[in-house]
Amino acid sequence: MKNVSWYFHQNLKPQGPLTFEEIRQRIHRGEIGPQSLVSNTADDRWMPAKDWGVFEDALFPALQGQELQKNLEEKCWVLLVPSPEGKGILQEGPFSLMELKQGIQQGQISVQQFIWKSGLSGWCKIQDRPEFDRELVESIL
C-alpha cells in the first residue's frame, strides 16, 4: 500500500491524493467516518472506509469505546453547534446521553452534528455512534 494514493468524499467531492498514513490520521481525528466513501488508485471502487479491511475499528472515533453508556444521566458529551452569528462553530455541553436523545427527538439537535467525549480520538457524527438507537437515527434521516 506504500505507492497507493487514497481519496475520500467530502461534500460530494473527491479529496486527495493522500498517503495511507495521511488517510489513517484523518480517520483517527474523525475527519473521515466509518461510512465515509473512500477509494484508492489500486482499486477504483468507492466503499465505506470501515469496509476496506485495512483500517481497524479502533481507529475510528465513532467506533471507539462501543460499550453502551450505562448511566444515561452522566454528562460527558460535547456537541458542536453553529455560533449565533453564523461565523463559526462553538462547543456546547457537557450533555448526558438522555439530553442529546431528547434534543434529537425534539428537532433541536441534528444527527449530522458532531459530538465528542473523553476517550475518543476525535469528533464524530451522532449518527455514527452506537449509543444512539438505529431506529431513532433512521426516523430522523
From TrEMBL:
Domain of life: Bacteria
A Pfam family assignment: GYF_2
InterPro entries for the chain: GYF_2
Residue ranges constituting the GYF domain according to the UniProt record: 6-51, 91-132
Protein name, UniProt field: DUF4339 domain-containing protein
Organism: Bdellovibrio reynosensis
